[in-house]
Amino acid sequence: MANHMNGAKRPVAGKSVLGGAMIIAGTTVGAGMFSLPVVGAGMWFGYAMIMLVGIWFCMLMSGLLLLETNLHFEPGASFDTLTRETLGQFWRIVSGLSIAFVLYILTYAYISGGGSIVNHSLQNLGIELPQSVAGLVFASVLALIVLVSTKAVDRITTIMLGGMVITFFLAIGNLLLDVDVTKLMQPDGEARFVPYILAALPFGLASFGYHGNVPSLVKYYGKQPNTIIKAIFIGTFLGLVIYTCWLVATMGNIPRSQFIAIIAQGGNMGVLVGALADVMSSQWLNTMLTLFANLAVASSFLGVTLGLFDFLADLFGFDDSIKGRTKTAAITFIPPTVMGLLFPNGFLIAIGFAALAAAIWAVMVPAMMAYKVRKMHPDYQGFRVPGGTPLIGLIIFFGIVTASCHLLAMAGLLPVYG
């Protein structure tokens, strides 16, 4: 144990904290951010920021609780192994089903969002397509990349992330310069804000999902908790900063009352980008924002579907041959693409359902595993998340409340703006 503790203080040779932080930030920030201004329109900027900071803290802690459990196992142990060994077969199945559900529903969400933003892009070129067809085109092109190889996804995602950073700051930088502080601090519309927080909670949770990367970081760095903690903190905090800039840019340019029309049209990505394009000072900046939206949804789609592809290949025992990859691709892409054709405007609904399942596997399960591991190893001297059992209780409570809020909102029992 002493050797382990001493090792934790040494830097990892050739593996910077920044690399891990970028993996976490890249996973956290994606197309889901386009849901935040829409679901946050009811409570508006001040309350939206309080909610985001609170969710960031809870999701940071749940990730660290997962890390604490992970450090009791050999580097390379999967989420499946951790749940089986700590919580038993029942929670292993619940967690596995939750992960599969999240990956499938996000794939559908990104086909819906991708169809919406492709449609918006084509309209700028004078081309009209039914949104379901635009979604089919989007899914087909990107599915081919996943089918080819993991290396193809890796290279293309790297290029996309570079393009996302450039286009985001070019478009958002200009929007931030044009922010109307009155719109942010004294919104128009009804003078009711707090009740809308509850319905928005699941979308905030979905915006900080990175937990599937924690076992990958342990495998990458080895048992180096200090390095991994820094990577998780920096990566998630960077996500929080980007979301803050995004909320300032959108809510500082689009009046609160105008979001009612955006929500009435399904609140999809293309509708929001179209509303922002109307207030932008130049066509070039509009193009940058549209390009950013395309890159964001495409990189999110590739990241999620690669995870789903590998998960299903492992589950069904399909090999890496052309025949094996084709079988895996069929069960990965056909169900969500069919859903995208039948329900082309389900982006917001799908993100909410993803949060429901993520509340189980990314919040409650890591907290329960950490509690169990502490009971199994009471004399363990390695990394332990501060806060004791009360913190674990808080994280489980947060997961239950968020999941309940989604179910109550679906049942029409929580107020939704618009």
Which properties best describe this structure?
76% helix; disordered N terminus; 0% strand; 418 residues; 18 helices; Amino acid/polyamine transporter I; mainly alpha; globular
Question: What would you note in describing this structure?
Answer:
- With 418 residues, the chain is mostly helical.
- It has one domain (2-410): Amino acid/polyamine transporter I (Up-down Bundle).
- It is 76% helix and 0% strand.
- Residues 1-12 have low confidence and may be disordered.
The average pLDDT is 89
Low-confidence parts? 1-12
The secondary-structure element order is HHHHHHHHHHHHHHHHHH
- So how many helices? 18
What proportion of the residues form beta strands (DSSP E)? under 5%
Give a quick rundown of the structure.
This protein has 418 residues and is mainly alpha-helical.
